[in-house]
């Protein structure tokens, strides 16, 4: 999917440029320092002012139109999470006729002084019916702005994330920034049920707010008849960011044993932003630096894709996205039997679930000795279809557009 075009803040129309009744609170807000804004919003006087000046979504041309959605994300599209859970959804909804914008919050704040950034947000944020926060725990200033939108315009505020962005301390502390954000939002979207259970266990009142939406792919972007060279070595691979190399290191002794035994007929490819430095130099390892425009090509390089994890709370909350991408390319996956991996992998059909690190060597041997892997490759592609955007569009719209508090 192509990238949605993001309008810079300065390009968004100001309140004054629209054919609406004057919104008297706006001029006052522009003159306020952040601390003044915080204090004022908390008073009954301001609440009454908000109600009396509510623009009712403002223009006659917007009446009956599709809701407008603003995504606030912490990262650029170079980060897979933002690319697949924000930019791709924004583009898909825009193609369906929705008005969507994406704002990289951290980048924009660096471009401008912090005070001017929040002042400009106040000038345009009221335009949106839905605001989706991606992996962002708002500062108190932004939280007050979002609260103002919520009560002033009935704006739907949604927090969504596909990683464990909170700590155990955040879960236990009812006064943490994370807990305050959860309470503020109309909906919370997580990628796996483990996070839904974890948050719901500590905060039962939030259980009805939490929805599970996996990280999805555009299946049409994966060629269905990609040719693979028969003369190349049996290639096993690990693809991910450098923060995940710790998991690969845990199974390195078994990879080494497998590769040494094959005497050059098998190799390990590691695709990462940093090179993998094996503990031994007596087996073949090829480091490939990850590039966005070659993202899908990497999965077609492999006969087997590795996804090792430990059984920590953070690992159990992983979204299994690299496994889903591997399946879409027709590449069997050998993954630790942890968390969402158990829902993605059907053991023996589209890959294998390793109960312990030594199982990786065992299942690599099984794949290596398999005379014809075409049936398993086809099963991989078929199982990836349930993670296609098209299969989830209706569910996504139901969650995002019907998220009244």
Features:
19 helices, 6-stranded parallel β-sheet, Rossmann fold, elongated, disordered N terminus, 15% strand, 405 residues, 2 domains, alpha/beta
Describe this structure in words.
The chain has 2 domains: 9-215 and 390-401, Rossmann fold (3-Layer(aba) Sandwich), CATH 3.40.50; 219-387, Glycogen Phosphorylase B (Rossmann fold), CATH 3.40.50. The protein contains 19 helices and 12 strands. It has helices spanning 24-31, 34-41, 44-52, 80-95, 105-111, 114-124, 140-153, 168-172, 177-184, 193-202, 245-250, 252-262, 297-300, 313-316, 321-328, 341-344, 359-369, 374-384, 393-401, and strands at residues 68-73, 99-104, 130-134, 156-161, 187-190, 210-212, 234-239, 266-272, 285-289, 304-307, 333-336, 351-354. A 6-stranded parallel β-sheet has the order 2-1-3-4-5-6, with helices on both faces. It has a 6-stranded parallel β-sheet with strand order 9-8-7-10-11-12, sandwiched between helices. It starts with 23 loop residues before the first helix and ends with a helix. Mean pLDDT is 83; it is low at 1-26 and 41-63.
Question: Concise description?
Answer:
With 405 residues, the chain is an alpha/beta fold.
Structural class call reads: alpha/beta
Mean pLDDT: 83
Number of helices: 19
* Biggest β-sheet: strands ordered side by side in the sheet: 2-1-3-4-5-6
Low-confidence stretches: 1-26, 41-63
Radius of gyration: 24 Å
- The total of beta strands comes to 12
Tell me the number of structural domains: 2
Helix content: 40-55%
The outline comes out as elongated
Reading off the top of the CATH hierarchy, the class of the largest domain is best stated as Alpha Beta
Percent in strands: 5-15%
Tell me which CATH architecture of the largest domain applies here.
3-Layer(aba) Sandwich
Cα-to-Cα separation, first versus last residue: 32 Å
Largest sheet: 6 strands, parallel
CATH topology of the largest domain: Rossmann fold
């Amino acid at each position: 999917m192509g990238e949605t075009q993001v309008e810079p803040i300065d390009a968004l129309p100001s309140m004054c440029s629209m054919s609406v009744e004057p919104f008297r609170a706006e001029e006052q807000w522009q003159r306020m320092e952040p601390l003044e804004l915080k204090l004022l919003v908390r008073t009954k006087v301001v609440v009454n002012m908000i109600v009396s000046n509510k623009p009712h979504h403002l223009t006659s041309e917007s009446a009956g139109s599709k809701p407008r959605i603003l995504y606030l994300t912490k990262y650029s599209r170079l980060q897979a999470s933002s690319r697949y859970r924000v930019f791709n959804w924004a583009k898909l909804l825009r193609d369906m006729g929705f008005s969507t914008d994406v704002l990289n919050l951290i980048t924009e704040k660096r471009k401008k002084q912090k005070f001017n950034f929040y002042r400009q947000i106040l000038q345009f944020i009221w335009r949106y019916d839905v605001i989706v926060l991606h992996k962002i725990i708002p500062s108190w200033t932004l939280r007050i702005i979002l609260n103002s939108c919520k009560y002033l315009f009935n704006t739907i505020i949604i927090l969504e994330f596909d990683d464990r962005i909170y700590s155990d301390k955040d879960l236990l502390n009812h006064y943490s920034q994370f807990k305050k954000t959860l309470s503020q939002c109309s909906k919370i979207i997580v990628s796996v049920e483990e996070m839904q259970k974890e948050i719901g266990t500590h905060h039962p009142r939030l259980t009805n707010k939490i929805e599970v939406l996996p990280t999805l792919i555009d299946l049409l972007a994966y060629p269905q008849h990609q040719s693979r060279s028969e003369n190349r070595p049996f290639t096993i691979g690990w693809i991910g960011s450098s923060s995940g190399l710790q998991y690969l290191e845990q199974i390195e002794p078994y990879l080494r044993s497998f590769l040494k035994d094959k005497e050059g007929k098998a190799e390990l490819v590691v695709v990462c932003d940093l090179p993998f430095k094996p503990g031994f130099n007596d087996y073949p390892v090829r480091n490939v630096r990850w590039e966005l425009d070659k993202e899908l090509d990497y999965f077609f390089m492999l006969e087997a894709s590795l996804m090792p994890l430990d059984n920590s709370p953070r690992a159990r909350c992983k979204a299994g996205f690299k496994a889903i991408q591997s399946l879409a390319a027709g590449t069997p996956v050998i993954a630790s039997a942890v968390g969402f991996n158990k829902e993605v992998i059907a053991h023996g059909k589209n890959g294998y679930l390793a109960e312990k690190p030594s199982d990786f060597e065992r299942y690599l041997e099984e794949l290596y000795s398999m005379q014809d892997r075409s049936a398993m490759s086809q099963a991989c592609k078929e199982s990836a279809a349930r993670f296609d955007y098209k299969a989830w569009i209706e569910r996504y719209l139901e969650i995002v557009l019907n998220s009244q508090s």
